[in-house]
């Protein structure tokens, strides 16, 4: 899957429902300007050594992000923030 397709899928599953039609179309259009995966990783990490180091810690990073997401969701549910307009 290319970067554009991955981003569009994620956007459609998360934020798209909160945006009006013209914002959704603009976001989709902007996603077509994203670089492919290898170019994106090169821009983010620079050298191949930096990329290798980042990929080494990626599983722990994802686990930490997942834990943060779960805690925030729990708080939103507990304090009924999902019901806010």
From TrEMBL:
GO molecular function: ceramide 1-phosphate binding; ceramide 1-phosphate transfer activity
Gene Ontology CC terms: cytosol; membrane
Naturally occurring in which organism (per UniProt): Manduca sexta (Tobacco hawkmoth)
Name used for this protein in its record: Glycolipid transfer protein domain-containing protein
One Pfam family in the UniProt entry: GLTP
Domain Glycolipid transfer protein: 4-44
